[in-house]
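Q: My labmate handed me this sequence with no annotations at all. I'd like to see what the chain might look like in three dimensions before we decide whether it's worth expressing. Could you predict it?
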Amino acid sequence: MAEEAELVKEFEKQCKTLIVFDEFPDNTVATVATEELKWRNKLHRLEQERPEECKFLGLSTDMKVAYYAIPKKWVKIVPPRIRRPAASEPQPGEG
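A: Here is what I predict for the chain of 95 residues:
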């Protein structure tokens, strides 16, 4: 918990969005701290649509950072697909 507090302090100094969760199997919740309007709006909408899953935890004292609890399974890293050349396109170094 002390590490999480340090992360939050560091976040408040420089970052825009921070997602914190433990890898323990019994922990199914991630905490999102964001000052970015697009994420605040999205999380607010999710809180309205799915209140049993997305919970508003509060605002920072300066009202810039919103804190939400969401299911950990919602957190994903999805890189863009790599476009592969079609078979009919010449490969680099060919022809």
